[in-house]
Amino acid sequence: MEKLSVEFQIRHSKALFLIGIFYVLIPAAIALRFIPFEMRFILLMAVTPVLFFLRPSKKTRNVDLGIELKNAIKSIIDLVPITFALAILTVAIAALNEPRYDNSELTIFFYLFYALISCPFQEFVYRGYLFHVLDVLQIGKWARIIVGAILYSFVHIIYADPYILLSTFIVGVLWNIHYDKLRNLAGGTVSHAVLGVLTIVLGLI
Fold this sequence. Notes:
Number of helices: 7
Number of strands: 0
Oligomer: single chain
Largest sheet: none
Order of helices and strands: HHHHHHH
């Protein structure tokens, strides 16, 4: 019994350490420019494989991180209504306002990188991996959803834009509700890619 208690404390401490370093300290360091803003995508590409191998628990499986074929199609289909509704809202907001950012210099290669690499990596870090870490901490469903959305929004502090912080929190809650139900990264990844590309093209972020 004492051994189990010690193992739990170790897992608990490791989970808090991972959140503190990867989800709080690194974004804060970029926001304060201790780490150059231009390094953000490089850091994402470096952190993702590190987290993949730095498992919160010895018993962690890929399926625990949302990586599996089961429910992949269902995960994508279930998010279509939300993605479509948010896409319509995004277009409406863009139509009623001037572009907030000039992204005209971005090339097709950026969008391919964003949709095919950045979005899957972000979903792994902020849905698959983070939810498993929160599972290790044994917090409830809505605590996972809200804490996950706060941390997902917090990483966008690097842009110093309240609109981005609010919008990523809201969409983070929606994606988290969906992920918590099916525990599959496919739907969130596709939705993230579609909405992300759309908001960048329209100059909202």
